[in-house]
């Protein structure tokens, strides 16, 4: 069974839409979590972003041990290991 990514999003987030499209195109299954509806998810995003030294924002993709903060096409593509 393929590993599933966790995609933290919020409404009206262009980068979130882009991240969803990239994950779909790469064939990486994911679960979308809206940080506006899930307080625990919002805290998790804040922790991931703090670890990267940036202000809390979306999208955040967690896939295995990898965390991609923001819409970074190169980092999202690097999640696909053949």
From TrEMBL:
Classification via PROSITE patterns: GLUTAREDOXIN_2
Superkingdom in the source lineage: Bacteria
Entries under InterPro entries matching the protein: Glutaredoxin (IPR002109), Grx-like_ET (IPR051548), Thioredoxin-like_sf (IPR036249)
Pfam families xref list: Glutaredoxin
Domain Glutaredoxin intervals: 7-68
CDD domains: NrdH
Protein name, per record: Glutaredoxin family protein
Organism: Tsukamurella paurometabola
